[in-house]
Design brief:
Elements (H helix, E strand, L loop, with lengths): L1 H8 L18 E3 L2 E3 L2 H33 L1
Antiparallel strand pairs: 1-2
Bound molecules: zinc ion (ZN).
Zinc ion (ZN) binds next to loops.
């Protein structure tokens, strides 16, 4: 049970980090994450950008909230 969840959430395992599929002849690497196809590389980059924007929005929201709390 534990091994199963670890393998699924590990990311850098034997499966693609985006679609979870097995690798073909070619592997793509993006930020130490192994991906199976260029489509997954694009998806990975898009996901990273979304995460960065989300964290930026979250941090600015927190700053805004703490600012309003101070007042
Ligand atoms: Zn993939």
């Amino acid at each position: 049970m534990r091994d199963n969840s670890h393998a699924f959430g590990g990311g850098s395992g034997r499966c693609c980090g985006i679609c979870g599929g097995k690798f073909g002849l070619i592997r793509y690497y993006c930020w130490r994450t192994a991906l199976c196809s260029k489509r997954c590389v694009d998806g990975f980059k898009a996901q990273r950008e979304i995460n960065q924007v989300a964290s930026l929005v979250a941090s600015s929201l927190i700053a805004c909230m703490s600012d309003s709390i101070r007042r």
